[in-house]
Amino acid sequence: MKLLYTLSAAALFCTTAMAQIPANKYSPAMNRNAGFEEAPLKPHHVVNEKVNVLWTNDFSNPADWTFSNTSQPNADWFITTNLNSAPVAAFRPAGFATAANGYAIIDSDALGGAATQDAYLIYNAPITACSASAVVNLRFSQMHRRYLETTSVEVSNDGTNWTTFEVNANMATNTNTSNPASVIVNITSVAANQANVYIRFHYVGAWDWFWAIDDIQIVEPDNYDLAGRGIYAGVEGNFGARLPYFMTPLAQIAPIKVAGIVENIGAMNQSDVVVNGVVPSSFAGSSAPSALASFGLDTFDLTTDWTPTASLGIKTMSFAVTSSNPDASPADNTMADLSVEITDHVYARDTKVRVSGYSDQGDAYELGTVFDMTTADTVYALDIDIHPNTDAGTEFYAKVYHIDAAGDFIYMGESDLVLTTSGNIGTVVSVSLQNPIPLTAGQSYLIVAAFDGAGGAGDFIVGTAGVSEAQTSFFYRASNTTWYYVTATPMVRFNFNPDVNSGAGLEEATLAFGLNLSPNPANEQVNINFNMPASAQADVKILDLAGKVVFAKLQSFNAGQQTLQVNTTDFQAGVYMVSLSANGTTSLCKLVVR
Questions:
Q1: Which residues are CB-neighbours of 168 under 8 A, at least 6 positions away?
Q2: Contacts for 516 with CB less than 8 Å, ≥ 6 apart
Q3: Residue 546: is its pLDDT beyond 80?
Q4: Domains 11-26+354-495 and 226-346 belong to one CATH topology
Q5: CB–CB of 268/294 below 8 Å?
Q6: Which CATH code fits 51-220?
Q7: Are 344 and 250 in contact (CB under 8 A)?
Q8: pTM of the model
């Protein structure tokens, strides 16, 4: 996002050297403008627990709180009634129930790359309401955009010795909570039966995002209260991981292993927790009854795999968690639905709606994800999402690797170069491979979007959507020839349609007239060289990357080799497209003016 990383040591994936990179270097523009995804697991949504509230604070009186930072006004933590204080559009206006009375926020993003934060928000007085309570939870509402910061609640019973409870550690880099999300922290070990309880909130960061909190409570929980926290689903094939496919061709349908993630936020252990999954008229499955300790979180697999019906369209499974004990808040016993689209030709692991993106700030890289093949097929193209903040005039291409038994990536083929323009930026583009590639059933493949960083035209950014399990989506940094894994799912998809047509690649588009430019880059003049197969009228244009025509000439040419000289001294430095059209055929060539 904002920081250059000191990369971790390589982690082994079979025999190929891999390492995790929390998020690749982003262009600042993309961080400001891209959509953002929700935290993947355990978002701590709470719905109307029937609890005994022991203490509460809604920041309506700022004098209740002390900030550890005093270097300048509002340098770190501050309390505000401004509903638009968050640096991310998804959190404006703030959704806290009592936001108008005030809420606390620390904005690492606004402080910039030169600042660091190690800041406390401290409640001034001891809380005396816990002395007769054997089980105690701290609850609060939050808004949080995750990067590399640490967000914690710290609790003490003497004001000197503190116990730290980290929150949000499970969130993937560059993801959001909801607006707002509720958090439950079990502070029984420090606060139960204590005459005095002290609380503070601790943020450690350096040009990260932000954390805002409101509506804090200390409560005694109900005895029996289960909450659905998410699902864990995918196909377990040759690669070994549980790979989720949100678009699956008819030929690749395979049994999906499905699990629900459940948290016991009640005071009592439960012995017979069951997750149920239902697809109307086609599937019903359940997990085996299992124990879940108080304040425990666990994953429960359905005993039967789900195989979507072999018909085109979206198939959706809904989930709920039950037990034999009456639940205090049944409204939070459901999880998000699982939806899989059955397609003719497209095979995708991303969740289909772009939320962010990856790049390497103009340096060469490859980015993609792993697929298992259920049935032998032939790939003709890859579908690649071009993030809206990609610079027009950059060139990219698609590549296919086979993953062998040793775990190495074995090159199989690629596409021609494709040029980004105002017409394809922000869209999913089908990129035809130079040759169709046959794929084998029971084998694993890595497909990537590749950017060579050449031409100085800027940055190419691949869209992302959804969360990838570690070691199932990969990033290749050309500058140090190292593969890394990433946890945001690249929007790079198989396309098995033999009739797919991505339009001419950049190289192919120059062939019809043998179009070439010299010198290129140009300074004062460029020679547009081309061959006319027959006498005809030709339309020659030079366009900037916004599509504005900066030069145009309609002229008749004889058959044979031709040269048209164009003065470029009045052109702005940058990248342009030269277009030559004659007899219903158009050729394109990139021009760089220095």
A1: 39, 142, 144, 146, 151, 177, 211
A2: 510, 529, 530, 589
A3: no
A4: no
A5: yes
A6: 2.60.120.260
A7: yes
A8: 0.72
User: Based on the number of CB atoms within 10 Å of its own CB, is 479 exposed (0-12), middle (13-18) or buried (19 or more)?
Assistant: exposed
**Interatomic CA distance for residues 550 and 552, integer angstroms:** 7
Give me the CATH topology for the region 11-26+354-495. Answer: Jelly Rolls (2.60.120)
Residue ranges per structural domain of the chain: 11-26+354-495, 51-220, 226-346, 508-593
pLDDT of residue 70: 52
Instruction: List, in order, residues 6 or more apart from 440 with CB less than 8 Å away.
Output: 373, 376
Count Cβ neighbours within 10 Å for each residue of 32-45 and write b for 16 or more, e otherwise: eebebbbbbbbbbb
SS3 readout for 23-47 = CCCCCHHHHHHCCCEECCCCCCCCC
Token couple for 127: 């809380």
> Which structure tokens are listed for 326?
């009456």
- With bands split at pLDDT 50, 70 and 90, how would you rate the model's confidence at 211? very high
- pLDDT of res. 381: 94
State the residue for tokens 């990609």. 390
User: What is the token pair recorded at 477?
Assistant: 């940094």
Contacts for 120 with CB less than 8 Å, ≥ 6 apart: 67, 68, 77, 154, 200, 201, 202
Structure tokens that stand for 572 in this block: 């702005």
Whether the per-residue pLDDT at 40 is higher than 50: the answer is no
Which residue matches tokens 């029996």?
A: 224
Longest CA–CA span in the chain (Å) reads 99
Q: Please state whether the peptide bond connecting residue 519 to the residue before it is cis, i.e. omega within 30 degrees of 0.
A: yes
Which CATH architecture best describes the domain 226-346?
Sandwich (2.60)
What is the per-residue DSSP string for 419-476?
E--TTTTTSEEEEEEEEEEEE-TT-EEEEEEEE--GGG-----EEEEEEPPTTSEEEE
pLDDT digits (tens, 9 = 90+) for 99-144: 999 999 999 999 888 888 999 999 999 999 999 999 999 999 999 9
Helix (H, G, I), strand (E, B) or coil at 143: strand
Residue 418 DSSP label: E
> How far apart (Å, rounded) are the C-alpha atoms in residues 483 and 477?
6
In this prediction, residues 561-573 reach a mean pLDDT of 92
CB-neighbour burial class of residue 68 (10 A; exposed 0-12, middle 13-18, buried 19+): middle
- The two three-digit tokens of residue 521, written as one number: 């880059």
**CATH class of segment(s) 508-593:** mainly beta
